[in-house]
Design brief:
By secondary structure, this protein is of the alpha/beta class. The protein is built from four helices and three strands; from the N terminus they run αβαβαβα.
């Protein structure tokens, strides 16, 4: 017997997010991921980056591992921005944990 269930296509969903931000005119992104060994994190990262590549993005994506925690990801991304000499206000940050996207969009 099988139980009913619902699953999400993490790869496709991340592509939708990337294309949405692109349609709003954003061209520089920070991507906060979860643990590399986590399947959802892996597929969300791949989907997001592939969509940007297909759209012709030329700016590098600044990446940080937030371990699926908002504060951890925000801190790691800020450190990476500072190390690279980048003004975070020029970027839109997308976290693979979808519930935090709105909080990160205006870093």
């Amino acid at each position: 017997n099988r139980a009913p269930g619902v699953v999400m296509d993490d790869f496709a969903a991340a592509g939708v997010v990337a294309r949405h931000f692109w349609s709003l005119g954003h061209r520089r992104f920070g991507l906060i991921t979860g643990p590399e060994s986590h399947g959802a994190s892996h597929f969300r990262r791949k989907g997001f980056l592939q969509a940007l590549e297909e759209l012709g993005a030329s700016d590098p994506v600044v990446e940080a591992n937030g371990h699926f925690a908002f504060e951890g990801g925000k801190f790691e991304l800020e450190v990476d921005f500072n190390r690279a000499g980048i003004n975070p206000q020029e970027y839109h940050a997308v976290m693979t944990n979808i519930q935090y996207i709105n909080k990160l969009c205006h870093m």
